[in-house]
TrEMBL record:
Species in which this protein is naturally found: Streptomyces durbertensis
Residue stretches making up the VOC domain: 10-134
Keyword field: Metal-binding
Protein name: VOC family protein
Record flagged with keyword Metal-binding: yes
SUPFAM superfamilies with a match to the protein in the record: Glyoxalase/Bleomycin resistance protein/Dihydroxybiphenyl dioxygenase
Length: 153
C-alpha cells in the first residue's frame, strides 16, 4: 500500500448531530463565543453554521433522535484550545451558569505533571467536550493517573 501526500491538511470544520439545533446553537454561542454564520431549514430538518471572524468552525445538524452514545463508534470528544488558563476559567464560569455537566471538578491537567490542561464537560446532547490551555495546569492533580485525562470521561 502506498501513501500519497496531498500537501498540508488542517481541520476545516466539525459537524455534530443534535436533537435541538436552537438549544445547541445557543449553548455553543454562549460557551465558545461563536457567531451564527448561516442557518437553514428543509422541512423538519434544520442546521446552523457557527464560527469566529467569519470562519466556519462548527456545523450543527438537527437529525438525532437521542443523545450522544460513548459506546458507539464515532466522535470521542471535541477539544478547543484557549489562549490561557485564565480564559479556560472564564469559559468554566459560563458553563457553570448554564448548568453543564462536568467530567471532573475544575481545571485538571492532561496527565500527572503535564503543563497543559483544562475543563472536560458535555454539551446539551451529552457530546464530550474540552477547553484547554497549553500551559498553567501543572500544579493541579490529574484525576486519572493510569491514562490520559481526556481518554475515558
Amino acid at each position: 500500500m502506498s501513501v500519497t501526500t496531498a500537501g498540508t491538511l488542517t481541520t476545516g470544520h466539525v459537524g455534530i448531530n443534535v436533537t435541538d439545533v436552537g438549544r445547541s446553537a445557543d449553548f455553543y454561542r454562549r460557551v465558545l463565543g461563536f457567531e451564527v454564520l448561516h442557518e437553514g431549514r428543509d422541512g423538519e430538518r434544520r442546521w446552523v453554521f457557527l464560527g469566529q471572524g467569519g470562519t466556519l468552525v462548527l456545523t450543527l445538524w438537527q437529525q438525532a433522535d437521542g443523545g450522544y452514545d460513548a459506546g458507539r463508534a464515532g466522535l470521542h470528544h471535541l477539544s478547543f484550545q484557549a489562549g490561557s488558563l485564565a480564559e479556560v476559567r472564564e469559559k468554566e464560569a459560563v458553563l457553570r451558569e448554564l448548568g453543564a455537566e462536568f467530567a471532573y471538578d475544575g481545571v485538571v491537567p492532561h496527565g500527572e505533571g503535564a503543563a497543559s490542561g483544562g475543563v472536560f464537560f458535555h454539551d446539551p446532547d451529552g457530546v464530550r467536550l474540552e477547553i484547554y490551555a497549553p500551559s498553567g495546569a501543572e500544579s493541579a492533580d490529574a484525576p486519572v493517573t493510569s491514562a490520559p485525562t481526556c481518554g475515558f470521561f
